[in-house]
Design goal:
The protein has 297 residues and is mainly alpha-helical. Helices cover 71% and strands 4% of the residues. It contains 13 helices and three strands. α10 crosses α13. The radius of gyration is 26 Å and the shape is globular. It starts with 11 loop residues before the first helix and ends in an 8-residue tail after the last helix. The N terminus is likely disordered.
């Protein structure tokens, strides 16, 4: 008879669920490539290319980097207690992908493909892995092209507002400015404020960059993070105004060729630099105005 007091107890590893059989990584990688390749081809060469906004590769790269920077923390997590949630999530994403592919709804395809890596994280490491990387997958949504009907509905008022503020600001300092709709007359030149200068797509991109900044800063104050994310919208509007004013000034002083040539692209760089400077300034102001979390009772 064995004494119960001396009976060895199972170790922690013995209490863990049975290890999952080795995953055929080559087969998994080939399967994911087979799903992704047609989407990427359509995205760059097919009908989708007309709806891209130009920033999507940057969004994809940043999202991948956000997950990569968590690699050590993810590797340290224990294996998922149950594989079923991840398996169900992957199966659901695969069904959505196939449905989107069959119906020709490419936004469904993109969202499904973005959900598959999240499902694999849940499969291997459980919900804790997704909690560590949720922002990277949320950030991927900014790579989904906006519906054209939404762009048309929102861009018009945005362009009108940016044009009005830019024209009034230049007129206030003495420039000969006229405004008719979204056409700005400066001296002998006319500038049409288009979607690239003041549209919803630009605002969408700037909002993504602002949220990325807030996530990387990761302030202890939840209120500060939330206010910073909300204030990115008026910051993006102000940055668009500065861009339009820059183009108007370049055209007035150096001619139409300069305004439509290299300096037009340079004005796009000015847009993002101004937006970044405003985000930093607003963040610093919020830091001074809001009480530090440590000081709260």
């Amino acid at each position: 008879m064995v004494d119960a007091a001396t009976t060895p107890r199972p170790s922690g590893s013995d209490l863990d669920p049975a290890p999952w059989p080795p995953v055929p990584w080559g087969v998994l990688a080939c399967g994911l490539v087979a799903l992704i390749a047609p989407v990427l081809w359509d995205w760059s060469q097919g009908a989708w290319s007309r709806e891209t906004q130009g920033h999507e590769p940057l969004i994809l790269g940043i999202s991948a980097w956000l997950v990569w920077r968590q690699r050590e923390a993810l590797a340290a997590l224990p294996a998922a207690a149950s594989r079923l949630p991840g398996l169900l999530a992957f199966a659901a994403a695969l069904l959505v992908y196939l449905g989107g592919r069959w119906l020709g709804v490419f936004r469904l395809e993109l969202i499904a493909l973005m959900a598959m890596p999240a499902a694999l994280l849940i499969f291997f490491k459980g919900g804790a892995a997704l909690r560590r990387t949720w922002f990277a997958f949320f950030f991927l949504l900014f790579a989904v092209p906006l519906p054209f009907s939404l762009v048309l509905a929102v861009t018009g008022p945005l362009k009108a507002g940016v044009s009005y503020v830019a024209a009034q600001s230049l007129a206030a300092v003495g420039y000969p400015i006229g405004l008719s709709g979204v056409v700005i007359t400066v001296g002998q030149y006319q500038l049409l404020v288009n979607e690239a200068c003041a549209g919803l797509q630009t605002m969408f991109t700037l909002e993504a960059m602002g949220l990325l900044y807030a996530s990387l800063m990761n302030h202890a104050s939840t209120l500060r993070n939330a206010l910073l994310a909300l204030l990115v919208v008026p910051i993006a509007f102000c940055a668009n105004v500065v861009r339009v004013m820059t183009l108007a000034l370049v055209t007035f002083h150096f001619g139409d060729a300069a305004g439509q040539g290299f300096l037009h692209g340079f004005a796009g760089m000015v847009l993002f630099l101004v937006a970044l400077a405003l985000v930093l300034a607003v963040d610093g102001l919020l830091g001074r105005m809001l009480p530090a979390p440590e000081a709260r009772a």
